[in-house]
Design brief:
- The complex is a heterodimer of chains A (about 450) and B (about 550).
- Chain A is about 65% helix and about 5% strand.
- Chain A has helices at about 5-10, 15-25, 35-40, 45-65, 75-85, 95, 105-130, 165-200, 215-220, 225-280, 290-360, 400-435; strands at about 135-140, 370-375, 400, 440-445.
- In chain A, strands 1-2 form a two-stranded antiparallel ribbon.
- In chain A, helix 3 crosses helix 4 (about 45-65), helix 3 (about 35-40) packs antiparallel against helix 7 (about 105-130) and helix 7 packs across helix 10 (about 225-280).
- The longest helix of chain A has about 70 residues, at about 290-360.
- The radius of gyration of chain A is 31 Å and the shape is extended.
- The termini of chain A are far apart.
- With about 550 residues, chain B is mainly alpha-helical.
- Chain B is about 60% helix and about 0% strand.
- Chain B has helices spanning about 30-65, 90-115, 120-130, 135-140, 145-150, 155-160, 160-165, 170, 180-195, 200-215, 220-240, 250-255, 260-280, 290-295, 305-310, 315-335, 340-355, 365-375, 380-390, 395-435, 440-445, 475-510, 535-540, and strands spanning about 465-470, 525, 545-550, 555.
- In chain B, strands 3-4 form a two-stranded antiparallel sheet.
- In chain B, a hairpin with a 5-residue loop joins strand 3 (about 545-550) and strand 4 (about 555).
- The longest helix of chain B has about 35 residues, at about 395-435.
- The model of chain B is unreliable at about 1-30, about 70-90, about 120-180, about 190-300, about 440-445, about 450-460 and about 510-555 (pLDDT under 50).
- The chains are: A mainly alpha (about 450), B mainly alpha (about 550).
- At the A-B interface, helix 4, helix 5, helix 7, helix 8 and helix 9 of A face helix 1, helix 16, helix 17, helix 18 and helix 19 of B.
- Strand 2 (about 370-375) of chain A pairs parallel with strand 1 (about 465-470) of chain B, so a sheet runs across the interface.
Chain lengths: ~450, ~550
């Protein structure tokens, strides 16, 4: 390291350990590195590599909602981390070249970690995901629930003749029955929640809430069962305070990371150019073993087919209507030419407006409320509150009303219903086509 | 999603017409069926998981609505066996029986109080009187007061209390307007204001119960009120069953106790408990009545149901403190913004590191590709809606113009979407080239293969947990019902799409058409000939008049 850098480092030194410490404490408890690990990684010490792989592994697993165990092999961790970083668009080739046994590369990993911090909002995401739920939560987004992934091997299906149409009918019937039972269960849950909220109205010290949730009521009834909750609450508070501290000290950390880049730039110039060549040589090895890519490609193909069919249809329609239009206009040209240009502009504007709502559909929706909301019973005429103890924040909190959500859901429901109908129509058409095209087929419409 | 492979035989496809019932008939290779069966089984498994989770949450909530001094671990057993014989197995019958007994006892106690000698009456009368009236003569007058004060007991009386009425008509005459004790009335009003009731039926009960909790130790009003509330509680449900109530339980109850005084107090407590139970459980299913818990115990403020003391509950102090600190910390974090220095430092770092990436900076990451694609998924559907909405033959010139413009606009949108799709496809290809080697274990290595359910739910303001306000039970039920409906539709669409995809791939492939798939609700019946196929399937399905001839063709 140059003397200038050492001086810089000394200037930053008082605050840097604080920043790194705050960063570490702001991470979730199970994924918390020691500040020393980061310090060692900065100097590319191999001892820190294993710890760092593990850190990234756990953090990324949390982001992706997957599970992990303490005993996951280092090889699996390395593969997962590399794959996840690729998925999020991290493109440093040096990372991909790191050995699979996790024995080296702590500095690269430090860079990757910092990149993730910014790119994914790692701290905020993890705080939100691991947030302690003390209320009765419900999600309001209408994100599509993914069908559970169907395993490739349906070996368990049994011998061929067992799986016949009647089995499928039976399964389908069971599925419908299950939905009914689920509905009934939900209704019961609603009644319970409503009662509890009603009966405990006026008791919560947080004025915005006003009543207890199931967890809180249970806490009163059996405080001894909830000691862990209290501890978790306190540790979360400490994590949040560390986050706030980190936000204050952030610039120091990023400057420090730039020094790392400086070092690497000095050292690695020659290596990088070599690497680039290697990279280009390795080119067209298309990995066929990625189900994710297959799925995406399938979706894209389907989408492109649909869109092209639509394009074709619209092309014809537009040609037709244009011809018609010019006919009509030619017939009345003497009458309406002058008056029409004024109305034409109005019509153009209204059509633009209409279509703008369509284009907003084409973009991925980013502003919806996703995630969980806490259910709060609030009457239209709130009764006088008996505030017990001190009140917590009375600031305006983000809130949605159930009525709005219900409306949106109903709109979505109607749209999905139409889509389903359309799909069924298509299937029916398809079936008729196929049946018509086969020899010796007798279609009996019932 | 794996499309079923092709094999060279056919099957009959039968699709029944059934309005609400949809079922799936998918033919072709048995692997196609297996695949469909696997899809359905997976969906079923997921549904079962949801049910289990929901049941756990519900169980906890249920426990909170019972009396809080009960044993929670297992089904509470009656502590005294004299009151309960063998419980009848259906829970509803049990509840009804309990209510019947409670009512019987209330009336019997009243009866017994009037009958017994003065000194005993004096002892109990004090406890009965709603007011602090010392003279015993006044007590005799007081006693009918509680009887008269039952607000909704008219029906009950009119029910099958006739045998008792014949003996003692006057105490059981309930006349309107029902006079209630002034004290009680005040408390009633106060509590009604606090505990917003669900409906008119429960209003009276809530108030009377609340009142009893207020005067927990004072049995005078307690038992009087409990009689009230028992009648009130019993009113909606008990009319039909009163006639069936067996009088012998009364003996079993009173036989166990020595003094009538104790009897009445115990009866009062019992009524209190049973009354609460009945009010709490009326109209609800899946609630277990635990009268045993009520019997023989004192109504101290620490016990009782949530209904009566919910308004007074307090969270324990350590939790309150921790909660306050926690929510303040969350609020500060939410409002906290990145300082300008930090933002600048971040940007510098990111730019520099991105210059060292091997791929050009501008291609979207796989995550972004997925995100964009997700946004595009619904577009064809919505476009088609718009196209269909354009009128075919508009009457006026303006409307014709509007239709034309709309169609042209839609055309532009489609080409824009196609362009975007093209870009995404190219991006995906280049990203796949950079993909790390994934040797071995595919399932666990790529995080992309296990997309997190909530992953796309990463909004800008992740640090706020919004509140969802609802104002009534109806709204809450509607909310959950709608959510469930949407989930169900998602699932159906996904299954439908996947199925469609599978056989459309197969059908387009070979010249020897091997697959006939179908959807969930088509109504055509198709018969097909195949080699090596079992013709008796048709007969099994009961196709009338369909017979196989020697060539294997099925004809009507």
């Amino acid at each position: 390291m140059g003397g200038r850098q050492r001086q810089q480092h000394r200037q930053q030194a008082p605050a840097l350990p604080a920043a790194v410490g705050a960063l570490c404490r702001a991470l979730p408890p199970r994924a918390r590195p020691a500040p020393d690990t980061l310090r060692r990684a900065r100097f590319d010490r191999p001892q820190a590599s294993l710890d760092f792989w593990r850190l990234l592994y756990v953090l990324l697993k949390q982001i992706h909602g997957g599970g992990w165990t303490e005993s996951d092999a280092i090889g699996a961790q390395v593969r997962f981390v590399k794959s996840a970083l690729w998925f999020h668009g991290y493109g440093r080739p040096q990372l991909q070249r790191l050995p699979a046994d996790g024995s080296a590369g702590s500095r690269e990993l430090l860079l990757a970690f910092s990149w993730l911090l910014h790119r994914l909002g790692l701290l905020e995401q993890l705080l939100a995901r691991n947030r302690l739920q003390t209320g009765d939560e419900a999600s309001v987004c209408t994100c599509e629930d993914e069908l559970p992934s169907i395993q490739e091997d349906t070996a368990e299906a049994g011998p061929e003749d067992r799986v016949d149409v009647r089995y499928l009918q039976w399964l389908n019937g069971r599925l419908r029955l299950q939905w009914c039972s689920l509905h009934a269960q939900h209704q019961e849950q609603c009644k319970l929640l409503h009662k509890i909220h009603l009966f405990t109205s006026g008791s919560h010290m947080d004025q915005n809430l006003g009543h207890f949730s199931v967890t809180e009521t249970d806490l009163i009834r059996q405080p001894e069962n909830y000691k862990q909750l209290l501890q978790l609450l306190e540790s979360e508070t400490m994590q949040l305070e560390a986050f706030l501290e980190w936000k204050q000290l952030e610039p120091i950390y990023w400057q420090w990371m730039e020094t790392v880049l400086d070092n690497m730039a000095e050292e690695g110039n020659m290596c990088e150019s070599q690497g680039a060549h290697v990279e280009k040589k390795r080119l067209p090895e298309v990995n066929s073993c990625c189900p994710w890519a297959d799925k995406l490609t399938g979706q894209m193909d389907r989408l492109s087919r649909d869109l092209m069919a639509l394009q074709e249809q619209l092309h014809q329609l537009v040609a037709q209507r244009k011809a018609l239009w010019w006919e009509k206009v030619a017939a009345r040209e003497e009458l309406q030419k002058e008056r029409f240009s004024a109305t034409a502009r109005k019509i153009q504007e209204s059509v633009e407006l209409k279509l703008r709502s369509l284009t907003s559909l084409c973009a991925p929706k980013k502003n919806e409320t996703h995630g969980l909301c806490r259910l709060v019973l609030r009457n239209k005429h709130p009764a006088s509150k008996m505030g017990l103890g001190g009140c917590v924040s009375k600031e305006a909190v983000s809130a949605v009303s159930a009525a709005e959500v219900i409306r949106e859901l109903q709109v979505r429901e109607a749209s999905l219903q139409r889509e389903l109908e359309q799909l069924r129509q298509e299937c029916r058409h398809r079936l008729d086509e196929i049946a018509g095209g086969l020899e010796g087929v007798i279609c009996i419409s019932h | 999603m794996r499309p079923p492979s092709q094999q060279g035989y056919f099957m009959i496809v039968e699709k029944q017409l059934s309005e609400n019932e949809l079922f799936l008939s998918c033919c072709c290779a048995s692997q196609g069926l297996s695949w469909a069966a696997a899809a359905l089984r997976a969906a079923l498994g997921e549904g079962a998981e949801r049910r289990r989770e929901l049941e756990q949450r519900t169980a906890r909530g249920r426990a909170l609505l019972w009396r809080w001094d009960d044993e929670e671990e297992e089904r509470p057993q009656p502590c005294s066996s004299t009151e309960h014989g063998d419980r009848p197995s259906p829970k509803e019958l049990e509840e009804l029986e309990l209510l019947n007994r409670a009512l019987e006892k209330a009336l019997k106690v009243r009866k017994s109080i009037l009958k017994t000698p003065l000194e005993v009456q004096g002892a109990t009368g004090q406890k009965w009187a709603g007011e602090a009236h010392a003279p015993k003569k006044a007590e005799e007058q007081q006693v009918p007061v509680p009887a008269e004060d039952v607000p909704e007991c008219r029906k009950v009386r009119a029910g099958s209390k006739k045998p008792l009425l014949l003996k003692k008509p006057s105490p059981y005459q309930l006349t309107a307007p029902y006079r209630t004790d002034p004290d009680v009335k005040k408390l009633q009003r106060k509590l009604t204001a606090r505990c917003v009731s669900q409906g008119p039926r429960t209003a009276g009960k809530v108030s009377s119960k609340g009142m009893t909790s207020k005067q927990g130790r004072s049995h005078r009003t307690a038992t009087g009120a409990s009689a009230r509330e028992v009648c009130a509680a019993a009113e909606p449900q008990e009319t039909p069953s009163l006639s069936e109530s067996a009088p012998n339980e009364q003996q079993s109850f009173s036989g166990g106790d020595s003094a009538v005084g104790e009897n009445s107090i115990a009866a009062g407590k019992h009524l209190l408990g049973a009354g609460k139970k009945s009010c709490g459980f009326l109209g609800e299913s899946n609630k277990r009545v635990d009268a045993a818990g009520a019997w023989g115990r004192s109504t101290s403020p620490g016990t009782g149901t949530l209904q009566e003391k919910g308004c007074q509950l307090k969270l324990p102090l350590p939790y309150r403190k921790a909660y306050s600190r926690n929510s303040r910390a969350w609020e500060r974090c939410r409002l906290c913004q990145t300082s300008a220095d930090a933002a600048a430092a971040r940007t510098r770092f990111m730019e520099r590191i991105q210059m060292t990436f091997c791929s050009p900076k501008l291609i979207p990451s796989p995550a972004e590709i997925e995100e964009e694609l997700r946004g595009l998924q619904d577009v064809p559907f919505h476009l088609r809606q718009y196209v269909e909405a354009v009128p075919a033959d508009p009457p006026t010139l303006q409307e014709e113009y509007e239709s034309l413009l709309t169609l042209e606009g839609l055309q532009t949108t489609v080409s824009q979407c196609l362009q975007k799709l093209q870009l995404l496809q190219t991006a995906l290809e280049s990203q796949l080239r950079l993909r790390p080697d994934c040797t071995g274990d595919v399932g666990s290595c790529s995080p992309a293969c296990v997309p997190a359910r909530g992953q796309t739910c990463g909004s800008a303001d992740v640090l706020a947990v919004p509140l969802l306000y609802y104002s009534s039970l109806q709204e809450l039920s509607d909310l959950f019902a709608s959510k469930l409906q949407v989930s169900m539709l998602h699932q159906e669409i996904a299954l439908q799409k996947a199925l469609h995809e599978s056989w459309s791939i197969c059908c387009s492939a070979q010249s020897r058409p091997v697959e006939i798939g179908s959807d969930f609700s088509t109504t055509a019946r198709t018969a097909e000939v195949g080699k090596g196929w079992e013709k008796e399937t048709a007969h099994k399905r009961g196709f009338p008049g369909v017979a196989a001839n020697s060539e294997g063709k099925l004809t009507l």
